[in-house]
């Protein structure tokens, strides 16, 4: 037995050219699977990083309470897997600056749940030790180093029996570390963080209870929705406000969608790769029928034949699969580096996730085993005499010859002899024909999907419409101190070569609506909102419906735009400028009508940003906005008032957004430089310029498009190789039959026509079926996604894609047919008929 199986390595070495062709197919298939695994891991990782950077951590929920004793019970509750507490101590205000430093007590495991990174030194461990965010340290008038002492005076507000009080303290801390912390959802960019131990924070505060935050991950005993219900049922937690990780809430669906998309794509590519490897090994086996017949004649059993073929395939795979993994890893990393415009060293070009290597290897080996076993199984069942005298075609059985050359179908009657012979060959090899068409259809459907999504969803156009300015200044006031002042705006206007296009205000508030205007959807939403607030729960039970909302202040230009989308309006736009009038947009949570009255809650702050109390102001609703026309993100109900009313009635003097346009486009860089210089000390104001933001969008869009089309190109290459192999196999397996036809008078030109007809059949059938399935796929995607992605999504008949598919399929299949012709004319007719491998 050992001597018999020793022919395996000899066969591999003897047929180097054939094994090299097989190896190329294996490399292409495995490298594609490997590249997809790398791109998937990097894409999911980047999306997770977006979530972390947006929300400041990997936690699932955030709890907030002024009762430290109750919220600290989160740490031992089996509902949560991990918990870290953040105990606010006070805010230090930088002298002669708008920069603030929030000093808080943190648990030791802060890095496990929050987006902290240690830059220098270490984290706090003992009393009086402090770690400060790096950019804040740069704002101090003195340059502090690790080990220096820093004296800070800080304050905070807290609620007691006597009402709102202010806690003030001054201490000397030892700087032990510099940290970075990112949380993009916090719009105020002028507020940094400083970390001390939670034990020291409690010593400083004593019996005073200021806000404590708990960040927790779900233990998975319940779903996240059920977890909120479970928390609400625990008495100690009833006064704890709990909310989702907003980054996961906003981007979690995107991550799930991308994950599912990659899983589907992975399955598709695995199928295509499997078909390619199967077909190439099928060629290998069928070309060796006579060889196997000789083995059988020498006494080899059918099982030994199968073992030989499978072991040869595995040995070839062991050589070429690692090469495919390395090539796939290299090119995937090249794509990533190129798209990111980043530099990398040679070693990083071969970084690959372990799961991707394992998946690629398993798919390669499994496809090889399947690709070898089934053809070998067929070959092993043929008797030695049949195998030796066979025409090398395992598919041509007697029961498959029912289709004759005297066709009854009208379509076939119109075909000539060569066309009918080509048709008969496809009928006799239905399985191979169907698998090849399926692999082609997969590529066609992917092409239809990609073209539809890229052609319909145009993020660049969406960006241009939403930005619609040369520069945008953003700032958000949470304490009456931040925001863009009239003085800043006037200073900008005095720069020259520009003008203020639009000024807007945004204020977080609560809006109480009339009891008869709540909908069932709105009531359910309020029930979920008030779980952690006993006062809000009581108000809800009394029929007082108060929505947490943003009030949008608009200038006259923006109000005129809104007027176009307003229905049921009762006042002219000019009449609402200085009056407590509001135009309301509602998204099914309320049923407010024109002439209803709503109440806004407004907080008051002094010039230092200290809280002075709250007021309630009544506004008259003078119009309702068509919700399908105006995008206000996820707002359930959104009131729009004039900037003047925002100042007079809601005590909001500063602007949250100012749009600046150039009066002379040639001065773009000059104005940008002046604006940057003007705002260099205003950390609370973010400057965005059109060109820079547009380039970012183009890069993101280019990256996504390149990845989509890149995979299509690679899959298409593999599919083309599969088509070429199928056509070659069709010729090789019928070489003796074709030679016999040549011997009875079928000249080379007619043989060529017959093979070309076969290629046409593959191309026409694949393109027709692929275009039908692809078109219906775009319709399904349109109806599923139009309400999620874009309310103005329009489906168009994909005529261009259909033309492209028809032309490409037919050209590819014709070229594949022509490439296979060279195998027909090797040797004389007599040699071809008498040939034995």
UniProtKB/TrEMBL annotation:
Protein name: FtsX-like permease family protein
Main location: membrane
Protein family membership: Belongs to the ABC-4 integral membrane protein family.
Species the sequence originates in: Clostridium senegalense
Organismal lineage: Bacteria, Bacillati, Bacillota, Clostridia, Eubacteriales
Family matches, as PANTHER family: ABC TRANSPORTER PERMEASE YTRF, MEMBRANE COMPONENT OF TRANSPORTER-RELATED
One Pfam family matching this protein: FtsX
Cellular compartments annotated: Cell membrane
Signal sequence bounds: none
GO cellular component: plasma membrane
Keywords annotated in UniProt: Cell membrane, Coiled coil, Membrane, Transmembrane, Transmembrane helix
């Amino acid at each position: 037995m050992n001597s018999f199986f020793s022919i395996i390595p000899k066969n591999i070495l003897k047929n180097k050219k054939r094994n090299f062709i097989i190896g190329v197919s294996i490399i292409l298939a495995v490298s594609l699977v490997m590249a997809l695994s790398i791109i998937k891991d990097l894409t999911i990782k980047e999306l997770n990083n977006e979530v972390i950077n947006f929300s400041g951590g990997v936690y699932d929920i955030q709890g907030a309470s002024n009762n430290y004793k109750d919220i600290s019970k989160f740490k031992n509750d089996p509902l949560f897997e991990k918990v870290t507490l953040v105990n606010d101590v006070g805010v230090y205000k930088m002298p002669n600056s708008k920069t603030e430093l929030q000093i808080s007590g943190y648990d030791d495991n802060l890095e496990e749940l929050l987006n902290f990174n240690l830059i220098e030194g270490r984290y706090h461990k003992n009393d009086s030790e402090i770690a400060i965010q790096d950019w804040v340290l740069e704002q101090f008038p003195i340059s502090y180093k690790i080990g220096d002492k820093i004296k800070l005076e800080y304050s905070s507000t807290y609620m007691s029996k006597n009402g709102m009080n202010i806690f003030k303290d001054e201490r000397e801390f030892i700087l032990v570390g510099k940290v970075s912390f990112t949380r993009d959802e916090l719009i105020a960019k002028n507020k940094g963080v400083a970390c001390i131990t939670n034990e020291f924070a409690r010593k400083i505060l004593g019996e005073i209870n200021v806000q404590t935050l708990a960040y927790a991950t779900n233990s998975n005993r319940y779903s996240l929705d059920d977890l909120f219900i479970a928390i609400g049922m625990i008495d100690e937690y009833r006064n704890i406000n709990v909310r989702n990780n907003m980054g996961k809430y906003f981007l979690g669906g995107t991550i799930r969608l991308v994950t599912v998309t990659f899983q589907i794509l992975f399955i598709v590519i695995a199928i295509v790769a499997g078909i390619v490897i199967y077909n190439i090994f099928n060629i290998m086996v069928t070309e060796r029928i006579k060889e196997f017949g000789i083995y059988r004649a020498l006494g080899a059993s059918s099982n030994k034949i199968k073992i030989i073929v499978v072991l040869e395939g595995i040995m070839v795979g062991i050589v070429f699969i690692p090469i495919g993994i390395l090539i796939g890893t290299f090119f995937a990393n090249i794509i990533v580096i190129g798209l990111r415009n980043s530099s990398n060293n040679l070693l990083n070009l071969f970084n690959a996730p372990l799961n991707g290597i394992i998946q690629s290897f398993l798919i390669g080996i499994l496809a090889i085993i399947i690709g070898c076993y089934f053809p070998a199984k067929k070959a092993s069942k043929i008797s030695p005499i049949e195998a030796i005298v066979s025409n090398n075609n395992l598919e041509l059985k007697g029961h498959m010859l029912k289709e004759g050359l005297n066709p009854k179908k009208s379509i076939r009657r119109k075909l000539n002899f060569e066309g009918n012979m080509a048709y008969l060959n496809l009928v006799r090899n239905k399985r191979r024909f169907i698998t090849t068409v399926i692999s082609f259809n997969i590529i066609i459907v992917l092409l239809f999907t990609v073209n539809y999504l890229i052609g319909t969803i145009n993020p660049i156009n969406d960006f241009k419409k939403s930005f619609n300015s040369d520069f945008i200044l953003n700032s958000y006031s949470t304490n009456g101190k931040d925001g863009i002042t009239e003085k800043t705006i006037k200073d900008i206007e005095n720069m020259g070569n520009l003008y203020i296009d639009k000024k807007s205000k945004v204020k977080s508030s609560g809006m109480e609506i009339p009891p008869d205007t709540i909908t069932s959807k709105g009531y359910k939403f309020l029930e979920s909102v008030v779980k952690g607030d006993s006062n809000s729960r009581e108000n809800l039970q009394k029929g007082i419906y108060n929505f947490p909302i943003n009030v949008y202040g608009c200038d006259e230009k923006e109000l005129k735009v809104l007027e176009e989308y307003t229905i049921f309006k009762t006042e002219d736009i000019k009449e609402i400028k200085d009056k407590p009038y509001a135009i309301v947009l509602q998204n099914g949570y309320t049923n407010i009508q024109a002439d209803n009255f709503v109440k806004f809650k407004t907080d008051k702050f002094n010039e230092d940003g200290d809280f002075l109390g709250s007021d309630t102001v009544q506004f008259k609703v003078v119009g309702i906005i068509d919700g399908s026309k105006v995008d206000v993100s996820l707002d359930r109900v959104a009131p729009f008032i004039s900037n003047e009313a925002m100042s007079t009635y809601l005590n909001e003097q500063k602007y949250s957004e100012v749009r600046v346009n150039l009066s002379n486009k040639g001065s773009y860089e000059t104005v940008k430089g002046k604006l940057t210089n003007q705002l260099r000390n205003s950390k609370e104001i973010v400057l965005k310029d059109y060109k820079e933001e547009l380039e970012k969008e183009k890069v993101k869009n280019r990256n996504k498009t390149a990845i989509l089309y890149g995979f299509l190109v690679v899959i298409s290459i593999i599919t083309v190789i599969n088509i070429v192999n199928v056509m070659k196999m069709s010729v090789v397996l019928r070489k003796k039959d074709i030679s016999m036809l040549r011997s009875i008078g079928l000249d080379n030109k007619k043989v060529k026509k017959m093979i070309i007809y076969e290629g046409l059949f593959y191309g026409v059938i694949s393109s027709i079926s692929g275009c039908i399935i692809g078109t219906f796929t775009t319709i399904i995607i349109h109806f599923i996604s139009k309400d999620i992605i874009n309310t103005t999504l329009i489906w168009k008949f994909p005529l261009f894609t259909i033309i492209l598919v028809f032309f490409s399929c037919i050209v590819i299949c014709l070229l594949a047919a022509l490439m296979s012709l060279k195998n027909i004319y090797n040797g004389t007719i007599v040699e071809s008929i008498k040939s034995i491998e």
